[in-house]
Amino acid sequence: MSYINLIYGGDTSASGVPVSSCENLFQYQRDREEWLGFIQTPAPSPLVEKIKMEVMLLVKAKLPSEDDLGSVELYGTRQDAIKDIEFSRIIRYRVHFPLQNPLPELIRLTVNGQVLCAATENILSSYGIRIRLEHTLFLELSSLQQHSLSQTGQLPQQNTTQQYPVQPTQQETIQSYKTQQSYTTQQYTTESPIQPQIFTTSEASSFNSAQYETETCGTPESKFGFSLLLIGGNGITRGFWPWLVAIYINRPVGGPVFQCSGNLITARTVVTAASCFRSSKGTTNINDVALLFGRFNIFDSTETGDKLARVQQLIIHSDYLSNDLTYDANIALAITRKRVQFTDFIRPICLWEESDSFSNVEGQLGTVVGWGRDSYGSILTATPKRINSRIVSNAECLRSSETFRYITSDRTFCAGGGPGERATCNSDSGGGMALKINNRWFLRGIVSAAIADSSNSICNQGSYIVYTDVAKFVSWIRTNLR
């Protein structure tokens, strides 16, 4: 194999050490008798499945050996890197160069396909041999749960002894000419990533028969039931409400935080509120959404038996407009990439099968379970609480406050907030109201909106709560089932 040995251009200090084009990310440092490259990059989202670091170098001399092209490796151990990711700390790498004189110059740093840094034009236009060094650290989804959950609702920790594979460093030599496209001397096979999608759909008449669990839905294991009465709602035992889903959103500051509740209706479909993902500021990036099934105590780092899933599609009803004061059609479906396996703690709830007439449910008690605000003022409770809320007429809801005129429609209903009744709250958003029919639970409402308490901007527990009427959207849900 031939190499071009012509040296041209480039920035070099008086000591012979190249001037880094990205001093905040890449630096040359002396380690005993050897010059090394040190990389430090911001921690990526904890929801990523892998971290692929690519380092492109320019060598202005013939390589001593084609078998040693250098390498890039983690500065510390894999466990150190995992902790750095979880706590949003800097991730560090060490680069070993294939030769010490002259030292290679940095052309580009890329993480997961995103260019973090590129060299100046005179380096990019230089003659020489281009080397690409690659390191990939694979992260299992369960590693998200190694982060201790704080009272702010960050994703819980889960102890695990599972080993994570680290892909060996791959080395690629590129013979480079100034005016010629580069080509590789090694072939790599990579898995095509799943392309997440966000859909906005309206009602459709067709029926998608996708795996609606008619035989197992709405029936928790009989051994699970209520625990002692707790302030701010009845406590339940784990497994009593197995379709309850915790929805987490990864934030730029603070990492994954609890966002909403959801309701499992098939092995891949969760129904929740559209407002959990869309606001006046835009729609949540689908890669920042994670679903936690079978979770009970969201503050207990030792709890096991839950399942974490990534989202492939967010299907938001086309009639939902976040910049409108009304909460009409505040409903969305989150479709997981893979089917979740049903267990004692993970089961689907039944879709509403009765008439969609509101008169059939007016005055009935619906059951809502969630981690919402309690009587002590906590925004989140450690374990879910159960409340019974009476469904009231639209007229009664409107009479209670003029505000409801702007946040209700003919596809919503009001419940709770009566004398001696506890209402659901902010953190219950997206959770379901269910009615028990013939010993099976059926989903009738989705927690949608509440009137804020003027003293703390949190929901007024003495006021009615607005629910999306699921019965009005059954055909839309069935059409989009996965």
Structure, briefly:
The protein is mainly β. It is built from five helices and 28 strands.
Q: What Rg is obtained from the alpha carbons, in whole angstroms?
A: 28 Å
The proportion of residues in beta strands is 35-45%
Number of helices: 5
CATH architecture of the largest domain: Beta Barrel
Which structural category fits the helices and strands?
Answer: mainly beta
CATH class of the largest domain: Mainly Beta
Q: How much helix, percentage-wise, in residues?
A: under 10%
User: How many E strands?
Assistant: 28
CATH topology of the largest domain: Thrombin, subunit H
In this structure, how is the largest beta sheet organized? 6 strands, antiparallel
In order across it, which strands form the biggest sheet? Answer: 7-6-3-8-9-10
Oligomer: single chain
- Head-to-tail CA distance between termini: 53 Å
Protein name: Serine protease gd
GO molecular function: serine-type endopeptidase activity
GO biological process, one term: proteolysis
Domain Peptidase S1: 230-482
Structure commentary:
- The chain is mainly β.
- The protein folds into two domains: 26-184, no CATH class; 197-479, Thrombin, subunit H.
- Helices cover 6% and strands 37% of the residues.
- The chain is built from five helices and 28 strands.
- The protein has helices at residues 78-86, 121-124, 394-400, 404-407, 474-479; strands at 26-31, 34-41, 50-59, 71-74, 91-96, 105-111, 114-118, 128-138, 166-177, 180-184, 197-201, 226-230, 233-236, 244-251, 255-264, 269-272, 278-279, 282-283, 289-293, 307-317, 332-336, 350-351, 365-370, 385-392, 412-415, 432-437, 440-450, 465-469.
- The strands form five sheets. Strands 7-6-3-8-9-10 form a six-stranded antiparallel β-sheet, with no helix packed on it. A six-stranded antiparallel β-barrel has the order 14-15-16-21-20-19.
- The radius of gyration is 28 Å and the shape is elongated.
- The two termini are 53 Å apart.
